[in-house]
Amino acid sequence: MAGHETHYILPRPHFDKPVKMLIVVAPYYKDIADNMVAGAKAEIEACGGSWDLVEVPGALEVPTAIGIAERMSNFDGYVALGCVIRGETTHYDTVCNDSSRALQMLGLQGLCIGNGILTVENRKQAEVRADPSDQNKGGGAAAAALHLIALGRKWGGQRKGVGFVPDAEEYKLAGELKDNPTA
């Protein structure tokens, strides 16, 4: 079982200014979600960060909530939490694939997201993965987002590729040109 293997875990990143995170959770399986949230909160706080928490109806709504928050708020990163347990229909595949794909697309747009939406075969697997004293996947998702935030801050001064936005002082209006005596 993969849960008993030893994996390398990156050291916690350090930040010179506070980190503000949004934890978005689908508490369909409330006890599992609560454990994952506890793990995520602890990891964020261990890095000196702060967090807000919002609940959404299901895993498919998690990426949408993150997209709304990115457009309308000021978070440095996001932790996506939920649990999808295989049932008797193909709905499991749809929810797993579409929620993951949507989070990946948001990440490729530059959002710092830790994906902690569990996709498991049964409740026991979910319980082990959600438990902060066992696999702690909520904490792991928060750690992933924190590492991405650290990378973003490290490379924040570099400008390349799509999405280049010059600093405010690089914007010049016609009336502000140096050779204009009214500037």
From TrEMBL:
Binding of (2S)-2-hydroxy-3-oxobutyl phosphate, residues: E88, T89, R129
Gene Ontology cellular component terms for the protein in this record: cytosol; riboflavin synthase complex
Entry-linked Gene3D superfamilies: Lumazine/riboflavin synthase (3.40.50.960)
Record-listed E.C. numbers: 2.5.1.78
Pathway: Cofactor biosynthesis; riboflavin biosynthesis; riboflavin from 2-hydroxy-3-oxobutyl phosphate and 5-amino-6-(D-ribitylamino)uracil: step 1/2
Single biological process term from Gene Ontology: riboflavin biosynthetic process
Alphabetically ordered keywords of this record: Riboflavin biosynthesis, Transferase
Annotated residues for binding of 5-amino-6-(D-ribitylamino)uracil: Y28, A59, L60, E61, C83, V84, I85, N115
GO molecular function: 6,7-dimethyl-8-ribityllumazine synthase activity
Active site residues of this protein: H91
Catalytic activity: (2S)-2-hydroxy-3-oxobutyl phosphate + 5-amino-6-(D-ribitylamino)uracil = 6,7-dimethyl-8-(1-D-ribityl)lumazine + phosphate + 2 H2O + H(+)
Task performed by this protein: Catalyzes the formation of 6,7-dimethyl-8-ribityllumazine by condensation of 5-amino-6-(D-ribitylamino)uracil with 3,4-dihydroxy-2-butanone 4-phosphate. This is the penultimate step in the biosynthesis of riboflavin.
Family per similarity comment: Belongs to the DMRL synthase family.
UniProt protein name: 6,7-dimethyl-8-ribityllumazine synthase
Species annotation: Thalassovita gelatinovora (Thalassobius gelatinovorus)
